[in-house]
Amino acid sequence: MPDLNFTDRVVIVTGAGGSLGKAYALEFAKRGASVVVNDLGTTQDGSFARSLSANTTVAEIKFHGGKAVPNFDSVVYGHKIIEAAIEHFGRIDVVVNNAGIVLDKSFQNMSDNDWDLVYRTHVKGAYSVTKAAWFFFKKQGYGRIIFISSNSAIYGNFGQANYAAAKNALIGLSHTLAIEGNRYGIHSNVVIPTASSRLTEQLFLEESLRSLKAEYVVPLVIYLGHESCQETGKVLEAGAGWFGQIQAYRSKGMVLPAANAETIADNWTAITDMTSAKHFDNIQEVTADLLNNARKEGISGTKWELENEKKNEYMELLTVVAKALNQKIHGSPTSSFMFMLILMNGTDMHSFTQNKE
């Protein structure tokens, strides 16, 4: 494959004053991108400013012939970061939401401020930057968004209730942006890095840190940011030279027509058996599967069941409306209408899963 070049592309990397963020910024610049190096200049717990960190990254980029400008705004004021990109480079193509802090404490000892500050930085910050960039992405019909999450979001970690919750929120945000942005050429993905950084350097032995260099994560972020990458809605993991994908799977489960707490307990093994677990690509597929399973088991008397002789009439009418919705229209999303279609006939769900704005 030819080298992935970023000439004429503009990339924003938040939290790029050191460690992982700096490594991302340096590589994007090396490949021709104009980079906005954002870093508030705080320590890992969000305290006192060290504004020189962004300047240091920019100086290194320029020393090697690259193009970059520093930005010291908080990610909570994301519009200022986007404005800096437009002012200096005229456009924005890639956003890497990397900025973050940790305030690790057991849940019992965690204060409201500990929770709010971590959530504000990771979630509100990523939202704010991405929301400001979205206007330009949509206008130009192109954009790449990369959210940096954490294994804590997937597995939890002692003392990181705030951090794990915030990083998990980014996964849900990215999945939704992938759905809403796909028609506009806007792709959104999540990267879960395991690497030495100022947020994790206290967690690993020195020998392990040598295997967990930030540079080992960088190739994945670069690829996801390139125009040739058509992946969206993915959660990917990287660390120590290993790369992989993470997906959610659901057990086969079982239908319990007259379920109560006792029948749940009696059938717990079958309910949680992951032997025939299945991955679903979207919420529509999940809903259709639930309803199809109910029908197979003869569940009746529920609101969504139509009399057989009337179902075709309803579906003919809904098909006409669905075709109309597939035309270019404006207004609120039609998710509720789509959900009604699924309830009417889950097996026909695939024909109607086109959200419209």
Give the CA-CA distance, first to last residue.
37 Å
The CATH superfamily of the largest domain is known as NAD(P)-binding Rossmann-like Domain
Kindly report the average pLDDT value.
86
Beta-strand segment tally? 8
GO biological process, one term: lipid metabolic process
GO molecular function, one term: oxidoreductase activity
InterPro entries: KR_dom, NAD(P)-bd_dom_sf, Peroxisomal_Beta-Oxidation, Sc_DH/Rdtase_CS, SDR_fam
Keywords: Oxidoreductase
Describe it for me?
Helix content is 44%, strand content 12%. The protein has two domains: 10-246, NAD(P)-binding Rossmann-like Domain (Rossmann fold, 3-Layer(aba) Sandwich); 280-352, no CATH class. 35% of the residues are buried. The chain contains 13 helices and eight strands. The chain is of the alpha/beta class. It has an eight-stranded mixed β-sheet with strand order 3-2-1-4-5-6-7-8, sandwiched between helices. It has helices at 19-30, 52-63, 78-89, 112-140, 151-155, 161-181, 206-211, 218-225, 261-266, 268-271, 283-296, 308-325, 335-344; strands at residues 10-14, 34-38, 67-71, 94-97, 143-148, 186-193, 235-239, 242-246. Mean pLDDT is 86; it is low at 301-307, 328-337 and 342-354. Belongs to the short-chain dehydrogenases/reductases (SDR) family. This is Bm5073, isoform b. Residues 9-186 form the Ketoreductase domain. InterPro entries: KR_dom (IPR057326), NAD(P)-bd_dom_sf (IPR036291), Peroxisomal_Beta-Oxidation (IPR051687), Sc_DH/Rdtase_CS (IPR020904), SDR_fam (IPR002347). One of its GO terms (biological process) is lipid metabolic process.
